[in-house]
């Protein structure tokens, strides 16, 4: 459930108005799972949401205190050795350290043991060699990726949103009209209701009607990019609108036009005016234990060999040629298993 991972600040805010939900959320995967080198309480505050800033040198530790809101309104659980902390230092009131284990008290009434990556490494109890390589051998992954870049099983993606604005007439010869949300929202009655509030009404009308269709939908293999925290993340189309406009005579006056981002051009001080289409970083909440991408080339296939090996090899472990040969053997074994 939402509150199993998220805190009251994530869900209800802390009094600040954030420009994006990414900035309001204070939890990171590593807050409970840690990394292959450090338990959660050994990590510094701010880990995984660095925002290009240097992190404190010390460990975040555990806490025995709850937020006042948690103590007043939520179920209080035995702290055991201490409550874990979020990346911003606030206590997880339902996640506790108990010996070598971390227990998460779910809002469903169940208690779950949280897998600790460092403990998996110490005990050598990886579920697969792929997991060991991806999370322990390739150190750059921990430094540069959001965990859900690989562990998100799917991401909703709608490429191209076709919007038709029609000022003409419908099949019965009646001029198209639609609700004017701006005018309606600014007109209130003595009870404070806006024009469209009463049941059975559609508010103030204005000429023209907007129709919307989608061009291409998919859920698999999301695009990866860099989010505001400086980490690799799945991306999903934000607004990718293509406009067509019909005039009052039902004639097309604009066909499949894309808006231009003049403010972005001004901000970047460039000659080219970029198209007003967007890709947005997203945590799709579709996490699964098995990573989506599988072998290295699931993500790195677009790189040249030199770039690939420089990114995924750890100096002093394998030479470039040894790494290439190892991946060749892996790929041949994988291909043979699919026959």
Describe the structure.
The chain is an alpha+beta fold and 339 residues long. It folds into 3 domains: 2-144, no CATH class; 157-281, no CATH class; 297-337. It has 14 helices and 13 strands. The chain has helices spanning 2-5, 8-12, 21-24, 30-33, 68-73, 117-123, 129-137, 139-144, 148-151, 181-185, 262-268, 297-300, 305-312, 320-337; strands at residues 83-85, 91-98, 101-105, 111-113, 157-166, 177-179, 205-207, 209-218, 223-226, 232-237, 241-246, 252-258, 279-281. The strands form 4 sheets. The chain has a 4-stranded antiparallel sheet with strand order 1-2-3-4, with no helix packed on it. The longest helix has 18 residues, at 320-337. The protein is globular, with a radius of gyration of 26 Å. The chain starts with a helix and ends with a helix. The mean pLDDT is 87.
- What overall form do the CA principal axes indicate? globular
Number of domains: 3
Say how many strands there are.
Answer: 13
Mean pLDDT value: 87
**Helix and strand composition category:** alpha+beta
Please report the number of helical segments. 14
Helix content: 25-40%
User: Strand order within the widest sheet?
Assistant: 1-2-3-4
Terminal CA distance reads: 40 Å
Major β-sheet profile: 4 strands, antiparallel
Query: Roughly what fraction of the amino acids lie in strands?
Result: 15-25%
Order of helices and strands: HHHHHEEEEHHHHEEHEEEEEEHEHHH
Radius of gyration: 26 Å
The poorly predicted ranges are: none
């Amino acid at each position: 459930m939402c509150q199993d991972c998220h805190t009251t600040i994530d869900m209800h805010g802390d009094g600040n108005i954030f420009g994006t939900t990414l900035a309001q959320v204070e939890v990171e995967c590593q807050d409970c799972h840690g990394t292959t080198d450090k338990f959660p309480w050994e990590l510094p505050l701010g880990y995984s949401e660095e925002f290009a800033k240097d992190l404190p040198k010390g460990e975040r530790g555990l806490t025995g205190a709850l937020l006042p809101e948690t103590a007043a309104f939520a179920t209080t659980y035995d702290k055991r050795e201490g409550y874990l902390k979020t990346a911003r230092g606030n206590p997880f009131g339902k996640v506790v350290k108990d010996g070598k284990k971390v227990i998460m008290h779910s809002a469903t009434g169940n208690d779950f043991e949280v897998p600790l990556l460092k403990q998996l490494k110490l005990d050598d109890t990886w579920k697969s060699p792929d997991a060991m390589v991806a999370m322990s051998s390739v150190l750059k992954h921990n430094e540069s990726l959001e965990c859900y870049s690989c562990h998100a099983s799917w991401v909703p993606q709608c490429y191209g949103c076709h919007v038709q604005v029609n000022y003409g007439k419908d099949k019965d010869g009646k001029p198209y009209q639609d609700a004017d949300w701006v005018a309606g929202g600014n007109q209130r009655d003595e009870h404070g209701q806006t024009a469209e509030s009463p049941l059975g009404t559609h508010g103030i009308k204005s000429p023209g009607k907007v129709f919307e269709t989608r061009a291409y939908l998919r859920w698999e293999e999301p695009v990866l990019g860099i989010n505001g925290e400086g980490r690799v993340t799945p991306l999903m189309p934000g607004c990718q609108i293509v406009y067509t406009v019909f005039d009052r005579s039902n004639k097309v006056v604009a066909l499949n036009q894309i808006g231009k981002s003049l403010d972005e051009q001004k901000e970047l001080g460039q000659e080219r005016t970029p198209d007003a289409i967007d890709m947005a970083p997203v945590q799709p909440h579709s996490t699964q234990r098995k990573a989506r991408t599988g072998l290295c080339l699931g993500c790195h296939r677009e790189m040249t060999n030199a770039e690939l090996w420089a990114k995924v090899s750890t100096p002093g472990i394998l030479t470039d040629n040894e790494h290439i040969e190892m991946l060749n053997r892996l790929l041949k074994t994988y291909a043979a298993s699919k026959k």
